[in-house]
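look at this record:
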Amino acid sequence: MISWRKHYKKTLIAIGLLLSTSASIYGQDGDPKNGEKLFKANCTACHALDKQVIGPPLKGVVERVKTEGGVDKDWLHKWIKDNKALRASGDKYANEIFEKYNKTEMQVFPNLTDKDIDDILAYTTNPPAPEPEKTAETTPGGETAAAPADKSTTNIVIISLLAIAGLLVWILIKLRQLVKLGQSEDLAGLNETRVRSFSEIYQKYHYVGKAALGILAILAAYGVWNWIMWIGVYKGYKPEQPIYFSHKIHAGENKIDCQLCHSSAKYGKVSEIPSMNVCMNCHRTISEYNGKYLEPGKDKAFYDGEIQKIYAATGWDPAKQQYTGKTQPVEWTRIHNMPDFVYFNHSQHVVAGEQAIINSFNKKNPNNKIDVVCKACHGKIDTMNVVQMANDFTMGWCIECHRTTEVDMNNGYNKEYFKNLHDKLKKQYPKDGGKITVDAIGGLECGKCHY
């Protein structure tokens, strides 16, 4: 009995050791799939698997630090959690890496558990293969599902060509009959009664002719006037730019605020074209496009190529992670260009008129509401791959807006500086319940917009 109990205890101890060893091995190896998620959430701002970004490539980093510095995974745990503390402790290899990569501070990750770090390292050691893309289904004959549509299109083309050929044969037959008719005696009698000149026709129908000429003159004058009035109106104009920039990806998919790039729109007269350095605030670490959205006809390689154009323009060497000093100015094609004799101030509309303009636009367009004041003039720019001129931008278009947009009395700017004026206007325009539109505060005065 005692012997059995001894063996029983040994068996329990053996099982416990086996389970603990298995757990230790699992924790040591980590989960590459979970590591991929953690890597993308915490590391991709500065690292990639197969190339240098701000920091070095991390594929095979466990083996690399072991070969280069003679350190193990425990060292990597310390480095990832608090590399500053590790360097401060005098660790030789930690300080060598810091010097090697231009003394660029790495973010600390005290929130990551040992299991999280093991998963990340497992991902860098053995990244899971990407899931294969879905391909078109094939028929038993080996053709894709689109083949029947292709065949039907071919049949339509053949039938159309046959119809055109039949029509041409019919026309040739009719022409042959006309030629024979011209050679007959019956046509000679008709020629004797035919009017032989335009003057004879005009004499016979001169009243109709004069009326027709009058109508043509009126239509010609209207056409000339209409053409003159639309000179300089380029609604729908969307030129190609030297570097392709999709507002749908940046402002739409990634929700980047307009004023992050066009910062002077709020406090300046002109909304400037952002410098390439603004682009590099993000694209220094974003060297390739990994978004889900792809514009029809464009692939990932296209977007990656456009990012490389940014690097060429700014003189950025992504391999060395430094500027070369060799820049290439980008010649953007301007889309919105106000005439020299027109004064327009962006800040006046964005600061003082922001909510008033949004409310007015949404009231007039209940099925096409906007949430940003920029869209009132420039359209829903967050849906545009190529920016285009969304409105007429004529004088009449501006005046109509001033006549229908109510001044926001609760706006802090207006309330502070024009309180007395607003009180006076409420008494002056009582018919609409004190409603004051922009034209009431000088929005139609010539000198407001013209020098």
Summary: The beta strands are 316-317, 322-323.
